[in-house]
Amino acid sequence: MTVTNLSNLRPATPEAIAEAAGVIRSGGLVAFPTETVYGLGANACDDHAVASIFAAKGRPRFNPLIVHVRDREAAEEYVAFSMIARKLAEAYWPGGLTLVLPRLADAPLSLLVSAGLDTVAVRVPASPVAQQLLAASGLPIAAPSANASGSISATTAQHVRESLGERVDIILDGGPTPVGIESTIVGFEDNLPVLLRSGAISRERIEPIAGTLAYSTRDGVSAPGQLESHYAPNARLRLNASAVSSNEALLAFGPDVLPGARHTLNLSPVADLTEAAANLFAMLRALDTKADEIAVMPIPNIGLGEAINDRLHRAAAPRGSA
Ligand code: TXA
Ligand code: MG
């Protein structure tokens, strides 16, 4: 183990949040908790600051970012809401829903946040620390998940620290993120709502408001974060396992845990998908250090299970496909 300098890791006290807001205003980088995962934030109006997010993550330039704002009124300064989009915002903001909407011509946002698209992804986070940071900075904050490109999203400040180290000016530690899986992304193609990424708010909660969600027909261009092996641990993943061998680690789900694994962690002993989502990334990280192969028990594909299975399929995808 290397001894690391933890000087940029700070408990999210009012003083630290005020200092972090100053960092955002002066063009620096702040990692902060949202209710979904930690974000790596910068002033969304400052091209140089936004560019430094890409540099810190080692993320391909074409990948657009989510702009975090305090409330829907703030979002209306940057994007055009359709009626369905407004209803979704009323139902699920603040919370784990991101809306991809047409960018207003006079929006003062950096063009880099849209990465060349004529849309912007906007979200109002529910986490009090995120809300206080937005209020104190008085700025929209562009923030991808706070992990190096191609690795698992960070659900604790320690994970941010391990992934990004000194490339962030301040990491606000607000404890583990309660939801643990990224926001659901809904966009519109030909005025019809499309599911660009399954996530924290399940399809079943969105469709009563938006109508049936189509999957995007555009191959990875509109949500390039969908690159196949995006959420990649080092270990190989074997999904829907019905038996385990002694050289494998096991990511279990439910009360009937498969016997014989070298090391087991259970996403939810009571088979609760919300609990499983909250544990997913931290348990993948932990098992990654225990074995070269991780067997994963089947997860029902309903509710948050859709997002969990999506992340697991990406993590299991052959390397080099991204
Ligand atoms: O929960 C979350 O969404 C977290 C927290 C920090 O808010 N953020 C997050 O950001 O997961 P990121 O950058 O890791 O994933 C954002 C996804 C990417 O797949 C990106 O391609 C897509 O959003 N995206 C952003 N802007 C877009 C746009 N204008 N059109 C289509 N997709 C967009
Ligand atoms: Mg990400």
Descriptive tags:
about 325 residues, alpha/beta, 11-stranded mixed β-sheet, 4-stranded parallel β-sheet, 9 helices, about 30% helix, about 20% strand, globular, binds threonylcarbamoyladenylate, binds magnesium ion
Can you tell me about this structure?
By secondary structure, the protein is an alpha/beta fold. It contains nine helices and 15 strands. It has helices at residues 14-25, 47-57, 72-75, 83-92, 128-137, 157-164, 203-210, 273-288, 305-316, and strands spanning 9-11, 30-33, 38-43, 66-68, 97-102, 119-123, 141-142, 170-173, 184-189, 192-197, 214-215, 236-238, 248-252, 263-266, 293-296. The strands form two sheets. The protein has an eleven-stranded mixed beta sheet with strand order 1-8-2-3-7-4-6-5-9-10-11, sandwiched between helices. A four-stranded parallel beta sheet has the order 12-15-13-14, covered by helices on one side. A hairpin with a 2-residue loop joins strand 9 (184-189) and strand 10. Helix 1 packs across helix 5 (128-137). The radius of gyration is 19 Å and the shape is globular. The protein starts with 8 loop residues before the first strand and ends in a 6-residue tail after the last helix. The model is unreliable at 219-229 (pLDDT under 50). Magnesium ion (MG) binds at residues 144-145, 153, 225.
